[in-house]
Model the fold of this input.
Amino acid sequence: MPSEFDIIRQYFIPTESRADVILGIGDDAAILSVPEQHELVQSVDTLVAGVHFPLETSPQDIAYKALAVNLSDMAAMGAEPAWFTLAISLPDADETWLKAFSESLSKLAQEFNLQLVGGDTTNGPLTISITINGFVVSGKSLTRHNAKVGDKIYVSGTLGDAALALMEYQGQCLVQKESLVYLRERLNRPTARIELGLLLREYASSCIDVSDGLLADLGHITERSRVGARINFEEIPRSEEFNLNLTDDALITPLILSGGDDYELCFTIPLDKQNEFETIIKEKNILVTCIGEIEEAAGVRCIKNNQVVDVKEMGYQHFTD
Ligand code: ADP
Ligand code: MG
Done:
């Protein structure tokens, strides 16, 4: 059985080093150099087996999701990811599991030029806690507190896919075989919208990643910005696979409005920047959709068939568990 140090050496020390890592894994702490005139943006997210993912999830998917949800926080802040640490609690030193986990982790890290610079390895129920660090030019971070009345509300990608995948996984609905791979990927391998986040620094007045559901997360923006929001249900983007597999309106509405785990970005664009933003987004071929507008009256209102959706009636509570 490998020791803690064998595990770290064998699975977690990266082969290449970023120039701004003065000292990586191996000492009591890492030494890192933040570029001049930049601020350090930091976030931590923990995944607990059986709580944040089903026990039988593959090590590749667990690693991917643990890092992707952290990358998503960087995207939501408009930060360029740079380094991360990994605190992992393992029930045993299963080398097959560790190999698959660490390969998937380093593959995703490499895609974003992100370096593992330290961590902690302990024995216990499977838990993965990643702290991620990135940079933004001082004062340019995207936050939740600057949305203004009249700003347009956008979301990236499509919503509801991850929640639909989870329902299918839990045996609460059936989906067509051809859709299963796509939907499972949306749940297990969320796409961190880093490129979009970086672009939004020039355009957005506020931004958040949708991890708990659109209404809840847009609600964080409106609360922090002391404004309200109106969104149009019909404009909220859905995937073909979602539409193909879900036709029961009583399920569609709560999944779209309150389904979690999509990790898309929800953000606001001031009117005077909207045209330029739309032009550049088309050039870069990034999918974003305007779904509504920031208003003065507090709260988030969703209009569907010319009526305000009654959030409680549609089972909102159930999906915020
Ligand atoms: P200490 O005793 O000072 O806490 P450790 O023995 O826990 O140090 O870790 C030794 C080195 O290995 C440290 O640099 C630490 O950051 C790193 N490390 C430990 N676990 C991990 C891990 N899971 N991933 C990456 N680096 C790790
Ligand atoms: Mg330690």
Summary: The first helix runs from residue 4 to 12. The pocket of magnesium ion (ligand 2) is lined by residues 120 (CB under 6 Å). The CA atoms of residues 165 and 181 lie 9 Å apart. The first strand starts at residue 21 and ends at 23.
